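Page 37, continued from 36.
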């Protein structure tokens, strides 16, 4: 199973925000969509960063409540690890675990086509295991 399979099932909806928006707006966006990270798109809609709930918590811990007025561009992760639609699920699991992050933008020819979360990865892996188990049960019953 690969990233393309996950995107086909979940869709390619992308929630994004501009780097000039403040952290309060980003927090509201995360809450509204019930997501843990938002991609930051710059000129031409190109990926320029990602902002997670953890990034917001760190900013608040460092600056207090005034952090909510800080532009997203000052807090976001700039060195974003991305994947392609042909990357395997096991590769994503390894990269997310090693990097200790839970969201990965998906690029196709440098164009953002989706975002995969660790929840998406786990869900697809569980479905794959359940399918394999069902096939094994069917095989045993017909043998």
């Amino acid at each position: 199973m690969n990233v393309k399979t996950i995107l086909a099932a979940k869709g390619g909806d992308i929630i994004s925000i501009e780097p000039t928006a403040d952290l309060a707006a980003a927090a509201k966006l995360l809450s509204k969509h019930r997501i843990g990270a938002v991609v930051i798109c710059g000129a031409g809609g190109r990926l320029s960063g990602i902002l997670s709930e953890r990034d917001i918590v760190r900013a608040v811990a460092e600056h207090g409540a005034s952090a909510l007025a800080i532009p997203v561009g000052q807090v976001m992760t700039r060195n974003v690890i991305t994947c392609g639609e042909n990357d395997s699920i096991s590769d994503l699991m390894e990269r997310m675990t090693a990097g200790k992050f839970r969201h990965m933008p998906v690029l196709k020819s440098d164009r953002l086509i989706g975002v995969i979360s660790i929840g998406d990865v786990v869900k697809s892996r569980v479905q794959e295991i359940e399918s394999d188990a069902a096939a094994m049960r069917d095989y045993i019953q017909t043998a």
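The helical segments are 3-10, 23-33, 53-63, 72-75, 89-99, 118-142. Flag for discussion at group meeting. The chain has one domain: 3-142.
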